[in-house]
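Deviation from plan, reported transparently: zinc ion complex.
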Amino acid sequence: MSISSRAEPSSILPDLQQEIARLAATPDVKAACAWLRSQESQFAQWQMEMARIPAPPFGETVRSEWLRHRFLELGLRNVHSDSVGNVFGVEGDPDKPCVALSAHLDTVFPAGTPLNVRQEGSRLYGPGVSDNGAGSTALLAIAAALLHARVPHALPILFIGNVGEEGEGDLRGMRHIFSDLRYRDQILYNVVLDGAGTDTIVAEALGSRRFEVIARGPGGHSWSDFGAPNPIVVLAKAIQSFSQTSLPAAPKTTFNIGVIRGGTSVNSIPESASMRVDIRSTSMAEMESLEASLRQAVERAVQEETAASEKRISAQKRSFGLSHEMVVIGDRPAGELDRNARILQVIRAVDAHLGNVAQVQRASTDANIPLSLGREAIAIGGGGTGGGAHTLQEWFDCNGRELALRRILLTVLALARAIS
Ligand SMILES: [Zn+2]
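Because the crystal trials were delayed, the predicted structure below was used instead.
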C-alpha cells in the first residue's frame, strides 16, 4: 500500500471513550488480552508457516487452504472458500449483519521466489513475512482469542482471508466479496489488517487506474517505406500533449508514464508501440477526467500522425493506416470515510484508551472496495514493526504485537456491540 497523511477528523466522543474503558475492564476482555499475551510463540509459528507457503498473485490456493484448516481447527462456524479462493469463518450467527475482519493472503513475489523464512530472536525474516504475514497472523490471533474467552457481543464477527490485494491482483478478492449482494448488505463494518504497526488508520482510499496504450501501424523499411505512419511517433505525440494536462492540487491527482516499449530495429518502421500509464486520485471524478484527457491525447496523436504520413507518402504508395487500443490493466476505486463514521470514532477512542498515537491516512488497500461503495471500513496494521516490504529482505519484529492485538480486539468488539 502507498500512504500519505490527511487532516485529522473531529474529536473523540466522551461517551464512546467511557464505553471502551468499560469494555476493556470486563473479565472476559481481560481474559482475552491475557491469553493474547501468552501466545506469542504460537503467533510467530503461524506467521512463519504461512510465509513458507508461496502465494503469488493468482496463486494463493495452497495458502488459502492452509488458512481454512486453521479456521476449522479454531472452531469458527460456516468455514468455507469461495470461487476465487477467499476463505471465510464466522464467530456468531452466520446469517446476521456482521463486523468483518479481513487480511490479504497474497504476496507480490512470483512463483519460484526463494523464501528462506527464519526466526532470529524476536525477528522473523522472509518475503511476505510482514506484508501480509503480520495482518493474517493478527486475524488468526483475534479469532482464537474470541473463541477462547467467549466475550458476548450482539453482531457476529466474520473472519476473511482474501486473495488478490497486491499489484495485478487489483483487489480482486475484495471486489468479489462486495459484488455478492449478500455480503454487501451483511458487512456493516470492515476492519482490514494490512502489514505491521499500530501508528496508522487508513480511512481514505487512494484510487488508481492503469492502462496499456497500444498503437499499431503497417511497419516497413526505414528507407524504402519512408512515410508510413509510425506508432512510436504516435506515443511520443500523445505523451507530449497528455503530460501537459493541468491537474488540481486538491484533491491530489497524479499520473505516470512508467513503461514504454516498441519497435524491432533502427532501420525498421515499428509495427507497434505501447506504454503503461498510471492515474491516481482520491476523487473518482478527477480520475475519470484524467482518463478522458489520455484518450483524447491518444486519438489526436493518431490523427496527427495519419495526416503527417499522408503528406510524406505518395498517393500511389499509400499504406494501411494506424490503429490504437487502450486496455485497462488496473482499476482501484477511490473513496473516503465520513469524518463522523462510527468505525473511525471507535478506533480513535480505542487509541486514546490505549495511549496509542495513530495518524489518519490515505492509501490504496483492500478497504478501497468497501469505501468506494460508501461502506464503513478502515485498514490498520497487525502490530510489531516491519521493513523491506516487497523485497527479499523483508523482516518483522514481534515486539509490540500485543498492543496491536488489544487494539484490534477492542475495536472489533466495540463495533460488534459487545455486552459490557
Ligand atoms: Zn499488504
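DSSP finds twelve helices and 20 strands in the chain. We consider this an acceptable substitute for the interim report.
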